[in-house]
Amino acid sequence: MRRRDFAAGLLLAAATQSVCAQEPAKQHRIAIIAAGPVAGIHDPGVHAFQAFFEELRQLGDVEGHNLTVDGYSGGERPEHYADVAREIVKRNPDVIVASTDPIARAVHAAAGTIPIVWIGGDPIQAGFATSLAHPGGNITGATVYAGTEIWGKRLQILKEAAPTASKAAYLTTRMSQAPEGQQLLEAGQRLQISVVELPIEEATSAAIQRAFSELVQQQADAIIVNSIGVLIAHRHLSVELAEKNHLPAIYPWRDYMEVGGLMAYASDDRELWRRMADDVHEILNGANPGDIPIYQPTKFELLINLKAAKALDLTISPALLARADEVIE
């Protein structure tokens, strides 16, 4: 190669590198519709969302750099979900992240072909997917559904922790009433503990306070809390009221333990949201959501808070402590 051509080649390469260095990162936009207040998306206390954003950053999707995140609240009112979904779709995000089945159902109806990454119950029963391995359509994500049997397991653990309990209240919402309630009733018969459902119309502080007043009137002496996301936003209040009313309680998520809850039998919601971040990243890079398998947790952990037990004058048996995956002193 002649010296002149070689020098020209160096100049061209340098110019190309300069242009590439100055080329702005490709911008993506995702919309997140949370079950609780929109502020929870960036709340350091909501570890699921923190895990989601941390995973995205590790994958190179950084909010404020190459990623715009629009947050929305479901407003805790199912009748408003369709309006919120239509508002999101008008902005035409690259991906919509939907928390809970009722929200995902509204988004699914409005989204057209916009990809959806969702977290909720049984996706096949909800009509979101044809199978976990190959969802089809424009939706994928993570399911917390592990069969209704897990609710019987939670009640069994609660009964072991509080063997004198004779009536357990099941705190749930109208929109999430499902086979779990029946499973609890059947498990209660086997365990000789009656179960009363307390379905609230909407997940508000006032509604939860009324529910606790009702369960006290019904002389319930233990409580089990539904796993639906809208209740997590009120975890501080639920734990506070359980302690105030001297009620042993078992929760479906670690979040309740981190604000002083007694026990939880739960999958790792942080892992679920990390998996969802992986799905978002794949979709932003061209993957078809219908080809991405839906993640289903296979491991559940028993967490016990001895400080909360002491506040309730409750002695946890050595056998139950030995089975715990984590004991909080």
Q: For the CA atoms, what is the radius of gyration?
A: 24 Å
Strand content: 15-25%
The separation of the N and C termini measures 75 Å
Q: What is the residue-mean pLDDT, rounded to a whole number?
A: 87
Globular, elongated, flat, extended or rod-shaped: what is the shape? elongated
Assigned CATH class of the largest domain: Alpha Beta
Number of domains: 2
CATH topology of the largest domain: Rossmann fold
Secondary-structure element string: HEHEHEHEEHEHEHEHHEHEHEHHE
Topology, number of strands: 12
Q: What's the name of the CATH homologous superfamily of the largest domain?
A: Response regulator
Largest sheet: number of strands, sense, barrel closure: 7 strands, mixed
Give structural notes.
This protein has 329 residues and is of the alpha/beta class. It folds into two domains: 28-146 and 269-291, Rossmann fold (3-Layer(aba) Sandwich), CATH 3.40.50; 149-266 and 300-328, Rossmann fold. It has helices spanning 3-22, 47-58, 81-90, 101-110, 149-161, 179-191, 205-217, 229-232, 235-244, 254-257, 269-284, 306-311, 318-323, and strands at 28-34, 67-73, 95-99, 116-120, 139-143, 167-173, 194-200, 222-225, 249-251, 263-266, 301-305, 326-328. The strands form two sheets. A seven-stranded mixed beta sheet has the order 7-6-8-9-10-11-12, with helices on both faces. It has a five-stranded parallel beta sheet with strand order 2-1-3-4-5, sandwiched between helices. Helix 10 links the parallel strand 9 (249-251) and strand 10 (263-266). Helix 2 runs parallel beside helix 11 (269-284), helix 3 crosses helix 4 and helix 5 crosses helix 6. The longest helix is centred in the first third of the chain and has 20 residues, at 3-22. The chain is elongated and about 60 Å long. The termini are far apart.
